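Subject: mismatched residue count in predicted assembly?

I count 891 residues in my input, but I want to confirm that the predicted structure covers every chain. Input:
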Amino acid sequence: MSILAIALLLAMPVIVVASYGLLPAGEVWQHLADTVLGDYISNSLILMLEVAVGTLLLGVSTAWLTTMCRFPGRRIFEWALLLPMAMPAYIIAYTYTGMFDVAGPIQTTLRESLGLQYGEYWFPDIRSLWGAGVMLSLTLYPYVYLLSRAAFLEQSVCVLEVSRSLGNGPWRTFFRVALPLARPAVVAGLSLALMETLADYGTVQYFGIATFTTGIFRTWFGMDDSAAAAQLSTALLLFVFTLVLLERWSRRKMRYHHSGQRHQSLPGFVLVRHQKLGAILICSGTLFFGFLLPAGQLAYWAIKTHEMIDADFLRLTLNTVALAGGTALIALLLALLMGYGKRLSPDKTTVSAVRVAGMGYAVPGTVIAVGVMLPFAWLDNSIDSWMQAQFGLSTGLLLSGTLVALVFAYLVRFLAVSLQTVEAGLGKIKQTIDESARTLGAPPGQVLRRVHLPMLKGSLLTALLLVFVDIMKELPATLVLRPFNFNTLAVRAFELASDERLMDSASASLTIVLAGILPVILLSRSIRNSRDNNDTPT
Amino acid sequence: MTHRLELDHVSISFGSTEVVRQVSFQLPEGYIGSLLGPSGCGKTTLLRAIAGFEPLAAGSISLHGKHVSSPKQLIAPEKRRVGMVFQDFALFPHLSVTDNIAFGLSGVPSQQKRQRITELLKLVGLDHLAHQHPHQLSGGQQQRIALARAMAPRPEILLLDEPFSALDPELRGQLATEVRALLKQDGITAILVTHDQTESFAMADQIGVMHQGSLHQWDTSYNLYHHPVTTFVADFIGRGTLLNITVADKNSIDTPLGRLSGKLPEGSEAGLQLKLLLRPDDLHLTTKQDGIQAKITGRLFQGADYFYTLQLDSGDQFHCLAPSHQQHHVGDSVTLKLDIQDLVLFSDQGFAL
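Triage response: the counts match. Full output below for your records.
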């Protein structure tokens, strides 16, 4: 019962936003539809196409090379290729802008060495639609990399060997057997990357590209029309929903594509010299542009502007850590409650309630902000006017504009992460373990304390960490819902960058990136384990 | 005599399907019982009901004279003092061998606890593994630790759910005998659930054969083999053939193997059609001329003996065992001598008479 209540509460923002889609369109909406809506749609679609091409090229090629081929550095690349995950797209956008725009070191050097003036030569403008595509691809390809890598690892070597024995070379085998077999996984990874693309606000805002997320902000704060903003959100949700369906569908397909046991170790094509060089170039290039270059630049800037790291900055960091940590803890408790409830009574209501509670991850932070803001503001107004009428008191803002609203929005968006981790952990504990403990005299509460919690320790820590980092990186919802005068590192970095103080924003950005490395370490550890299982000869 | 475990017309339902139907039996103190049957016969469900994991639709279960389960009452598993060993052993992976065994001993003074653990480790012969973790143990070792863990709190009864099925076939028979010795040594009352009759025979004093939710017979292994009460039990236990026969008179029947005499049930009238159970060990090959003539249609080498399939001129088929040094080939005609102790006869409905 309580599980259902929590699920409904968490689903409220999406329901609120979706219900605005049913309302008759207002004047502002009509105006939007006549002017900018076409741009929003076409820009979002072009951006998605760019990211699709970019993440596929980077993700699939690096996954194939690191799983199937043998070349120096492969073992390092295996996990290092995940590092760009630590880099939020808006932060990489700031660094690349700082490096490549007119006043940046690259163009300056170019002008000085060639003796040219600004305007006398052509240089690609990074702050453009294609630039945003590149930034997002560089940080989102690890989704494709991770899932296609797992798919390649699970492929039966026999299937590949059959193809070779039937006269197909390694390249033909890759395109005719390995890639089609991995396709569902690749598509699943791709749809995750595209969901993040749709959710992105920081990058497109900074590059001045009109997409749905920037449009929602503009309509709400620029035109002060919350209904039209909600209707734009509904339109965005339709895109997201399509991607969710795509992801679900390919995950279902993945099951049929499991083609056998993992007993044999992978073939490990030994590359000849120029092939080795190519493989190293592809992997190190991806790693360099996706992580090493921007991280290095950030570090350089942060050192140059070290006076930014003052008491204020520390307070800001503490704020962020406390907010992210506290919320992650609440998310973990809710996830435990739901996961455990589902284990004890897996009836239809509970199962669908848990599923609903996990839907928020697909919903862009901007949409959640709108969906939280509308009902909370309404509630505040209602309470205020009731109190005015009854007691002549003005209560002002009780919910909206407080940490409650922000924490709630985070829970809506990120509960799915902890829920998934907790459920996966619980799923690995067999029912007979519970039953043994019961027959040995332990009532259910003790089973949780003495058996489940110690066995789940790893999963619980992972869940906590993943949510923590996700919250640290989160930008649009924080921007809208944070209380007056309350800042997080992400918001500070965004504000400084928007004021063209890129260098000053580096210390905040770098802190976020450093925190983001933690889950990468976790992921790479689990990858190493799967590799160990895979490479042991039988 | 008080019974340690008593089931009285126990029925269990999953939704609207009745998976256990009207099962009754008693197990005396210190005895080892076994529930034997093909998969899906309800034996595991019945065991879980005794442990307290499944509610009853009808009937009652008593442990040591105390009602623990009825449709109105379900005492929680942790309050029943039952020990259970699972098919997958279900050792706690985060605890060492010692801590696994100590799990059920919370509340016991630490001196006694240590003593009991040492005693059990010695009993199962694994005292050198006390500080290992479950993943470091072999399957057989895990099985014995699971047994020690379940025995530690001195349960009223020990329940074993297919405890050998995860092990190598060669190991099973040997372990079953070992486990029986361990339980007898500690005087523990136990119930073993299995689909493998050799395991049942090796371990149990009393065996219940189950089929489609019903308990057909609760008896000793000897009686199950020689005096099965239904054709299902006759078929499931050992090998044998059911021959159609006709009652000739008060003391004899006409069979495809000729006229046999023996004790017939009361009121068997001449002309009554019945079935006779013929075990392979009821027949011997003989070199003498007079006897039953049959043709060999199949043979299976089993090491010590051959298992022959034979056919009469009438077309009736049956089986017979013969020492493997007597070689006969498929197609040979042989002479057989019948050596039958009791006539085991079944009605058309499949019940023993």
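Helices of chain B lie at 43-51, 97-102, 110-123, 139-151, 169-186, 197-203, 221-226, 231-236. Marking this ticket as 'not a bug'.
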